[in-house]
Write a structure and sequence with these properties.
379 residues; single chain; mainly alpha
Length: 379
């Protein structure tokens, strides 16, 4: 057991360094800095002092690193475009910055650690344990977003190779490979890429097929990564949280986000939506918190206005859905979907909304998204 943790850290760093060895230092620095912040916060809590400033400093550092690598170019080009529209020429420096693999997932993992220490829900782990948590290779590139409170307790005891759920592990790994290579990649190559690249060359039914195919593709693609990560972790003796639960069977947008990328939606709920006030400060504030949470969630997915608009669509959709439910309850009306036909319409409506929103997620620009949607009616 004493050798297992340094070995796992070493092979995780080797895994990440195989892509670009320079960013191994980013992982190590992130572990050192956030461990120092966690120890500082815990020390202040033991003395009965407030730790809010220490937490704010940790959040600022982590988000600053994410912003520099992921959003610097987006910010500069957006500001330059806005000034150009006003007739002002701005010669802003645009640097070519390589985006570290999985930095968005890394940021949310380390933030959950320092925030939970601040809340008193978690005690700081040893530097070695925390470093293993930061660099653990199965979820390093694409999630799921395992929280420190879920992962670190599993490091306390040694792994027993005779007590592994290998059946479930191999089912997840090979099922994920099948979803990724046989379904997602096929749909991307033969249907989706062409429709989004040159929508004007396709008829309305073909564009509709491409939009629906992308809903299937992105589910098979992303859930495959999560399944493989969970399966590999099981072979190493670790239980990672589930990330998908039949999301396209949802009957409401809220239900969709309880089933889609579960670790992200629960992270946004616990560390953003609830601290903003959640639903505790009146209906208007609740709706605003929903929109703001998913606006920022969309920006987390990518540095582009298409991702921002995608998040805005889901935030507004959730707010409208919540307002309708509140109105029905205030009038004493039953919840919709009491009949089989009503439930079928709910399934279809949610799938249609989610699929149309995915157009902005997949498109290279807002103009490209509008061209795809326009072709639905003009083709």
């Amino acid at each position: 057991p004493r050798l297992w943790k340094p070995f796992m850290l070493a092979v995780s760093l080797l895994f990440y360094g195989w892509w670009d060895w320079r960013f191994v230092f980013l992982l190590l620095l992130s572990a050192l800095v956030n461990q120092a912040f966690a120890q500082w916060i815990a020390a202040r809590r033991r003395r009965g002092a407030r730790s809010g400033w220490a937490l704010a400093a940790a959040v600022a550092v982590d988000l600053g690193v994410l912003g520099w690598f992921k959003y610097y170019g987006f910010f500069v080009t957006s500001v330059a475009g806005a000034l150009g529209a006003l007739g002002l020429n701005a010669d802003l420096p645009l640097l070519r910055i390589v985006l570290p693999l999985g930095i968005s997932f890394l940021t949310f993992r380390v933030l959950s650690y320092v925030i939970d220490v601040h809340r008193g829900a978690l005690q700081p782990a040893s530097l070695l344990d925390f470093s293993v948590y930061v660099a653990f290779f199965p979820y390093l590139a694409a999630g799921p977003i395992a929280r420190a409170s879920e992962f670190l307790p599993q490091l306390r005891g040694p792994r027993d190779p005779r007590d592994l759920d290998t059946g479930r592990a191999f089912f997840l790994i090979f099922g994920g490979l099948a979803k990724k290579m046989l379904i997602a990649d096929y749909l991307a190559t033969h249907v989706v890429d062409g429709v989004f690249a040159t929508p004007g060359q396709y008829s309305s039914p073909e564009v509709l097929l491409g939009i629906v195919a992308y809903s299937v593709q992105i589910y098979c693609d992303f859930s495959a990564y999560s399944d493989i990560a969970i399966g590999i972790a099981l072979l190493l003796g670790f239980e990672l949280p589930e990330n998908f639960a039949a999301p396209h069977a949802a009957r409401t947008i809220q239900d969709f986000w309880r089933r889609w990328h579960i670790t992200l939606s629960s992270w946004l709920r616990d560390y953003l939506y609830i601290p903003l006030g959640g639903n505790r400060k009146g209906r208007g504030r609740t709706y605003a918190n929903l929109v703001l949470t998913f606006l920022l969630g969309g920006l987390w997915h990518g540095a582009g206005w298409t991702f921002v608009f995608w998040g805005l669509l889901h935030g507004v959709g959730l707010a409208v859905e919540r307002a309708r439910m509140d109105a029905r309850r205030s009038r004493g009306l039953p919840e919709p979907g009491a009949t089989a036909g009503g439930r079928a319409l709910q399934h279809l409506g949610v799938f249609a909304f989610v699929s149309l929103a995915w157009v902005f997620f997949r498109a290279e620009s807002l103009g490209n998204a509008v061209a795809v949607l326009w072709r639905l009616v003009a083709g």
